[in-house]
C-alpha cells in the first residue's frame, strides 16, 4: 500500500462525515437503521474516516465488525468475519478474547451457543468446498448474535466491490435479501470503484427496506487545505500564491497534499531554508513525481499496471495520453491515437468503467489532475525521449513545473469576470454535461461586458440564435440582484436565451429558490472549474 489509513493525531478534517456516521450509529440503538455507502477516489481517505469513527465510537449495545475486502480471498473474508463477531462479543462482555479462532469459539460457546454452532456449520461448508452455502450461512450471523445476546452490529465492508472476486453465485442479491431482514445490523460499504459501486447500489442493492445513504467523499475544501498545509509546514514560510498553487494542483486530495508537503519540508531541512520558493516546489515535485523512486511515480505506474493488467498497453495508452491533454472528444482521441473511432470506442468505455476516464458531454477527461500531469509530463517524456540524458530530462521537468506555477499565478491576477469571458470565447458548439444535464456551449461571435448601470460584472455573449447573459460573483448574492438581473434580461432588446449566475460561494436557500423560479442557471465554483479544466484553463481558488 502507498498510504496506510491514519487515525488519532494524524487524522485531519472530515468532521461532517464523522458526525453523520456517529448520528447513524446512534440511530441504530434507537431502532432506526440507515445503511451507508462511502464512495470516493483511491486514497481519498475512506478507510481513515471509517477507522477514525470506530476509534471514538463506543456503545455497550453495538459491536463493530470491520472487514477489509481489498485484494483478499473469500477464505480471508469468511474467517475474518466470524473471528471479528466472536472477538468483539467477548470484548463487549469483558471476557477473555484471544486472537486464534479455536480459543474464541471455546470462550464464546457457553454464552452464545447458537452463534458458535452456526459458525461451525459455516466452517464445515467451506472446508467441504460448498462456498455458496457457507456464504449464505455467514450473512445472517449478526442476526443470530442479536437473538442470543441482544447486541446489534455495525458491519463495515471496505472495498465491497471485491465481493465480485469471490465467485459466489448471486452474491449481491443474497446480500440484499439479508439486509432487508436484518433491521439490527447497520452496513457501511466503502468503494473506490465509483461508477461500478453506484451501479450496484442503484440495481442489486436498491431495496424497499435498508436502502443506502451515499456519502461522496470529496477532496478537502480550501480552508481545510490551508489548515493542513500550515500544520504540515509549521515553521516554514509558504507564500499565498504558492499555497494556492499547491491546493489547485493537488485539487485538495489529502494523499497528494501529504506527499508533496512532506517532501517540501524535507527539502527545506536539507537546504537549511525557512521559506519555500518555486524552485523548491519544482525540486520537490521532481523527487516525488519524476524520480523513478518517487512515491507518486511508483503509485501512478502501479495504477497503470493494475488497471491495464492483462490488456494490450498499445490499445489503451494512446487513449490515456490523448486524454491527458485538455478535454478531448472522441474525434480528437481517434486522430491522436491514429485509430478509427469505432475501433477505440470499446477501449474508451472500458477506461470509463474503471474510473480512469470520465465522459462529460462530448468530452473525455482523466479525472485525476496529477495523474493526468504525470502521464503528460513524466510518462510521455520518458517514453518518447531520444536522448539518454536523465539529468537533462529531469531539469526539463523542473522547468515545466516552474512554468506551470507561473501560468497559475498570472491567471490568478486576472479579474474573475475576465477569466469567464476568456472561457466563453473558447466554446465551439460542444455538448457538455453539467449537473447531470447536457448543454450546448455555443461558438459565440462576441463576448463582452454588458453595460447596464444596474448590473455589475455582467457578461453578454452573442451567437447565431441569440444571447447568453451571465453575472459573476465572488461574494454573497442577494435576492434583489437576482430580481434586477432577471428584469434586465427580460426587458432587454437583446434576445437573451440563457441566463446564468456563477457564484463562488454557496447561495442562500431563498436566493437559490428565486433563481430557479426565474429559470436562471446556477454554476457553482466546482461547475466553473470543471468547465475551465475541459478547456485547458487554470482553476479558480476561492479564498
Descriptive report:
By secondary structure, the protein is an alpha/beta fold. The protein has helices spanning 15-29, 46-56, 74-92, 101-108, 113-127, 131-138, 141-149, 171-181, 194-202, 222-232, 240-250, 254-270, 278-290, 295-307, 313-323, 330-337, 341-353, 369-384, 390-412, 416-424, 479-491, 509-517, 525-534, and strands spanning 35-39, 62-68, 152-158, 185-191, 212-216, 328-329, 358-360, 363-365, 430-434, 437-441, 446-449, 458-463, 466-473, 496-503, 521-523. The longest helix has 23 residues, at 390-412. The radius of gyration is 27 Å and the shape is globular. It starts with 14 loop residues before the first helix and ends in a 9-residue tail after the last helix.
What is the topology, as strand order, of the major beta sheet? 2-3-4-1-5
Largest sheet properties: 5 strands, parallel
Tell me the fraction of residues in β-strands, as a range.
5-15%
Give the CA-CA distance, first to last residue. 34 Å
Anisotropy-based shape: globular
Q: Give the number of DSSP strands.
A: 15
The low-pLDDT segments are: none
Number of helices: 23
Q: Please bin the fraction of helical residues.
A: 40-55%
Report the mean per-residue pLDDT as an integer. 90
User: Using only CA atoms, what is the Rg?
Assistant: 27 Å
By helix and strand content, what is the structural category? alpha/beta
How are the secondary structure elements laid out?
Blueprint: H1 15-29, E1 35-39, H2 46-56, E2 62-68, H3 74-92, H4 101-108, H5 113-127, H6 131-138, H7 141-149, E3 152-158, H8 171-181, E4 185-191, H9 194-202, E5 212-216, H10 222-232, H11 240-250, H12 254-270, H13 278-290, H14 295-307, H15 313-323, E6 328-329, H16 330-337, H17 341-353, E7 358-360, E8 363-365, H18 369-384, H19 390-412, H20 416-424, E9 430-434, E10 437-441, E11 446-449, E12 458-463, E13 466-473, H21 479-491, E14 496-503, H22 509-517, E15 521-523, H23 525-534
Parallel strand pairs: 1-4, 1-5, 2-3, 3-4, 13-14, 14-15
Antiparallel strand pairs: 6-8, 7-8, 9-10, 11-12, 12-13
